[in-house]
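Good morning N.,

You mentioned wanting to compare the apo and holo forms, so I went ahead and generated the holo version with D-mannose. This is what I fed in:
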Amino acid sequence: MKMTFRWYGEKDPVTLPYIRQIPGMTGIVSAIYDVPVGEVWPRERIAALKAQIEAEGLSFEVVESVPVHEDIKLGAPGADRLIENYSENIRRLGEAGVKVVCYNFMPVFDWLRTELNYEWSDGAHALSYDHETMLELDPGKGELSLPGWDESYTKDQLQELLNAYASVDEEKLWSHLKVFLDKVIPVAKSAGVKMAIHPDDPPWGIFGLPRIITNEENLNRFLRLHDDPYNGLTFCTGSLGASAANDLPTMIRRFGGEGRIHFAHIRNIKRDGEKNFVESAHPTAYGSLNMYEIMKALYESGFDGYIRPDHGRMIWGETGRYGYGLYDRALGSTYIHGLWEAIATERKSHHEIAN
Ligand code: DNO
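and this is what came out, ligand included:
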């Protein structure tokens, strides 16, 4: 596995020199953030970002995200041109040495939470999701806490978009996803870029919008839509783990064993009832996910892709981008490293004894 860290560019309060001091850190996950969704990223901008990252001794091989325009997900008339632009971005990123692109196919919203400053008993702050609260919110009134939502729609635009999705049910969304994959994956393959879809977070439909990248059956359906190693997954433990029905180690062994997991987002969450959760510290003891079993499944499935600590809590007085501070993600990274080193060492010594 190759340890990476997400960085939001110049505006990120967490700096590259700090990131490089995290033990075992090898690469940066980033993107060009200010080009409107659907447009082509200028080559010079990609090159400048790469140079800036490499100047700190880190690699730039993973992009998160190249966002998919809503018209592609809606199957709207302009979708073909937008898919062509998307493909051009993949070609350009491949030329710049990028190996994996993470993206999602969630209608309108990216990750959704109801509280950005949930306070743990030790004073740490984290993001949380409460389903009852979410159901009471009216997205048309701009009442949402949307840490992952980079779009700035006006209320009217948002309402229009929500109306447009009224005719797109899950099956339609699947068919639009297939149109997208059938065009983009061959381009990605020839550009040497592995596509890695991010699961829906949380993994269930909200506000009547369809969400389809949610569980083992649907991940399998996704992989068969365009059955090629370049059509793969970002395995996000926190997103998929929000549903207790998802058996993460089993899913990792299955899809990782097929060589279809290209990127792993590792974090823990504490579930409370069926559809409520709080983001917790990374170690197993703090949440509902068994991180040792997750890392063991990755190791045993032969995972050699990119990995990053996902959302951290805000600790030690740090302020900054929700979920993306330095301290707790750095602790997460070190913890993941520790698990991996222990698992690898144990497996190697077994192997040596057996031979
Ligand atoms: C949240 C992230 C997501 C992810 C996108 C990928 O922290 O994991 O916003 O980047 O869904 O397109």
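The pocket of D-mannose is lined by residues 64-65, 102-104, 110-111, 148, 198, 236, 265, 311, 323 (CB under 6 Å).

Happy to go through it together on a call whenever suits you.

Best,
F.
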